[in-house]
Structures are given as C-alpha cells and as structure tokens.
Amino acid sequence: MGTSFARSFALLALLCLLLPCHGKGKLSTKFYAKSCSGVATIVRSVMAQAVAKEPRMGASIIRLFFHDCFVNGCDASILLDDTATFTGEKNAGANANSVRGYEVIDAIKTQVEAACNGTVSCADIVALASRDAVNLLGGPTWNVQLGRKDSRTASPSAANANLPGPGSSAASLVSAFAAKGLSARDMTALSGAHTVGRARCLFFRGRIYGEPNINATFAAARQQTCPQSGGDGNLAPFDDQTPDAFDNAYYTNLVAQRGLLHSDQELFNGGPADALVRKYSGNAGMFANDFAKAMVKMGGLMPASGTPTEVRLNCRKVN
Ligand code: HEM
Questions:
Q1: So what does this thing catalyse (predicted)?
Q2: Structurally, how many domains does the chain consist of?
Q3: What are the angstrom distances between the C-alpha of 287 and each of 19, 119, 169, 277, 278?
Q4: pLDDT score recorded for residue 17
Q5: Interhelix angle 39-53/56-69, nearest 10 degrees
Q6: Within-domain flag for 289
Q7: Could you tell me if 48 and 41 are in contact, meaning their C-beta atoms sit under 8 angstroms apart?
Q8: C-alpha span between 171 and 13 (Å, rounded)
Q9: Does residue 232 share a domain with residue 267?
Q10: 225 and 138, same domain (yes or no)
Q11: Residues 150, 44: one domain?
Q12: What is the number of the ligand 1 atom nearest to the C-alpha of 177?
C-alpha cells in the first residue's frame, strides 16, 4: 500500500515536472488580505482610467492575460522585455506588434509597489486587471484567485507553438485548449472575448475575400478598409454593432455568419460547437457565467514546477 502510494506520488511529481500543473489549491482569493489589502482597489482604479481613455485597452488587457496563461502558465512571462542576451515572448509571432497594454500594467505595478513593496506579482496584476477590463466594458465580474509568482524565464518557442492562429480549424482550437486542460465548452466561452477589441486586416483578409460562409453585407463592409493588397495593419472591430461592449454579440454575429476571423466562424460552421454558440447567442447570462468560470480556470494554469520564479519588482525585467 505504502509503496504504491509513494510510487503514485513520485509519478505525479514527475508528471508535474514535465507538464504544467494546473495548480489546484495553491491560489486563494485572500492571498493578499494581510500583505496588500488595497491591491484590488489600485488595479481597478488604474484600469478604470485606462478604459475611460481608450475602451480598446480593456480588450487588449484581456488578450494579454490569455497570451500569458497559454505559454507555460500565468506567470507574467509575456511581460519580460528582450535584452541583448535574452529573447522573451514579446516578439514571438502571435505577440509582436499585436499584444498591447504593457504600459498600463507598468502603471498599475508602480502604484502597487508604492503601496506594498515587493509583494504582489505581475502575474496577479494581469489576472486582476483582466477581470476588471471585462467588467468595466459591461461584462461579468468574479473573485480572482491570487498567489501566482512571476517566472524568471520566457519561451518564444512555446508562444509560437501554443497560441492558436486565426486560420485554425475547429478541431485544432479544441486541441489547443485541451492541451491546457480546458474543455471545448471553455474554449467556446473564452472565445466570446472577441466581442470586444480589434483585429488587423492581414488576419481576416482571406475570410472576407474568399470564404463562402460569410454574410455578404458584412464582407463588403469589411472590404472597405481591408483591401486585397496593402493595408495589412488596418483595424476592424470584431463586433461592429457594439465594438466596446462585453456582451454576447460575438455569438449572435457567428449565427449571422458575421464572424471576423476564420477561427471565429469555425465555432458556428456545422460542427459540434454550433449548439452552444446558439445557446450563448440567446442567453447572455449563461455566456457571462461560463466566461467567468473559464477565466478562473485559465487563470489557474501554472508554470511547470521547478520553473524559477519570484515577485518581480519591475514587470519588464527579472530582479
Ligand atoms: C480561440 C482561439 C483564438 C484565436 C485564434 C485568436 C486570435 C486573435 C487574433 C488574430 C486577434 C487580432 C490580433 C491582431 O490583429 O493583431 C485577436 C484579438 C483579440 N483576442 Fe483573440 N484569439 C483567440 C482566443 C482568445 C481568447 C481565449 C481571448 C481572451 C479570453 C481572446 C481575446 C482577444 C481580444 C480581446 C482581442 C482584441 C485585442 C485588442 O483589440 O487589442 N482571444 N485574437
């Protein structure tokens, strides 16, 4: 008995070394209750200012959290700047000239450091900020699990390998999320973040000029600012009706074949996700609930054990 228990434990420990552990039980909503009780208020106020100044920033911060968590866990690895001797994730394919909001995280960190020096990780700041971003844009709120640490490493190759691209099929989206312990339902709910924010023409050109499952009026409208050649960086809203409102319009758009990216429309294209997309399109409350749960689950992704970590003092560089 004892030996088999020890064996299973050793096996689990070995698995944890090889795979990211999903960190159940390690995080707590009260993690900073004694050490930095004001952190949530600081994050909320900086986020409120940033979103008031530019609503898209809310979207950008939500995406920043996703791109942090999917690459070796929510460990603020995405925030590390490249140096002469270190190449991080910022310039990896899915992030370069695309992920934004780093200055907002810096502004939060400066205030949090002034209030509670060396206490709150950058990874926790991103988790809190993304919760606030969703809520400030009109979406749900939830209790954020806290206690993450910041990694002293980053992985451009994992960023390139783990983050799904806009040309993905439904099956590859499901498997990219499954690789992180997230279900097809989690994936479908989390994709609803594309109810806010903008995408560049180069990512949806193929869809608006070539795909059959697109609403013709929508395609024509998008073609106005996304020519067949040139204009790669021109932006379009994911949701052109309520571009900055965190609502369930992503799903009503998909049902109307008004998904912007190929990968978006894959969730409503005669496949297994169709039924849930239809439900979310008719039930904003169900979407809000599932989205919040899935964000907590994604926020539980941890770096592999053994990864060197710390509470960074400056989110852009290791201590
Ligand atoms: C399911 C697979 C996903 C794919 C293929 C995907 C792909 C993309 C692409 C190509 C863009 C536009 C980038 C650019 O133009 O530079 C984008 C933007 C965005 N993504 Fe995703 N994404 C996915 C899932 C998610 C998830 C899970 C979230 C958050 C929970 C998210 C949140 C966002 C947001 C909010 C934006 C707009 C950002 C802004 O305006 O700055 N995405 N995504």
A1: 2 a phenolic donor + H2O2 = 2 a phenolic radical donor + 2 H2O
A2: 2
A3: 30, 34, 22, 9, 11
A4: 43
A5: 130
A6: yes
A7: no
A8: 31
A9: yes
A10: no
A11: yes
A12: 1
CA distance 267 to 277: 7
* Residues 34 and 125 grouped into a single domain: yes
In this predicted structure, what is the pLDDT of residue 26? Answer: 84
Distance (Å) from CA 99 to ligand 1 centroid: 9
128 in any annotated domain: yes
Q: Is 262 a catalytic residue?
A: no
**For ligand 1, is residue 172 a contact (CB within 6 Å)?**
no
Ligand 1 atom with the smallest distance to the CA of 198 is 40
Give me the CATH number covering residue 258: 1.10.420.10
Find tokens 């021109």 and name the residue.
Answer: 234
Give the per-residue pLDDT at 24: 40
The segments of the chain whose pLDDT lies below 70 read 1-25
- Judge if the beta carbon of residue 55 lies within 6 A of ligand 1: no
Residues 26 and 109 placed together within one structural domain of the fold: yes
Integer Cα distance of 270 and 278 in angstroms: 12
Go through 87-125 and write b for each residue having 16 or more CB atoms within 10 A of its CB, e for each that does not: ebbbebebbeebbbbbebbbebbebbeeebeeebbbbbb
- Dist. CA 1 → ligand 1 center (Å): 49
Q: Is 191 in the pocket of ligand 1 (CB under 6 A)?
A: yes
